[in-house]
Amino acid sequence: MERLNLLKSHLTTSSTSIIEVHDTKDFLSTLKTHSQESTVIIFTAGDIGNGKTWCSDCDRAKQNIEEYVINQVPKGEKVIKCVIKQAEYTPQHPYKQSKLIKLKGIPTVVLVRNGEVVLRAEKDEDFTNVGLLSMIAQHD
């Protein structure tokens, strides 16, 4: 049974489930529980209302992440979406300290395969690179 601070929600496509993680303590257990051979993980800022987040870069990348990552993940697979609160986003944030993730900034989208990050989108130009986003989604 999943903890209360994990939320399951379905976005625009009925074939892709988004597992939202709001507590960093749950990240590794969520990754382990929902890991397939390949797992797409999205790191983004928390919503502050009106569909906006506290991170303008996240707001700019949101449409391309939905269109070219979430909507292109193979049918039946899950995406882990880690939502980061502004007050907790410091240099000591667990995702920045993680040996697996090595988060430099948000938004970031990674493809984890067999316990290693094999593809990463994290720079502004990465979120306009449809080829890169599609490769992450389709596990190429």
From TrEMBL:
Coiled coil: none annotated. Transmembrane segments: none annotated. GO terms for molecular function: protein-disulfide reductase [NAD(P)H] activity. One of its GO terms (cellular component) is cytosol. It comes from the Eukaryota. InterPro entries: Thioredoxin-like_sf (IPR036249), TXNDC17-like (IPR045108), TXNDC17_dom (IPR010357). Residues 24-116 form the Thioredoxin domain. SUPFAM superfamilies: Thioredoxin-like (SSF52833). Belongs to the thioredoxin family. This is Thioredoxin domain-containing protein. It comes from Halteria grandinella.
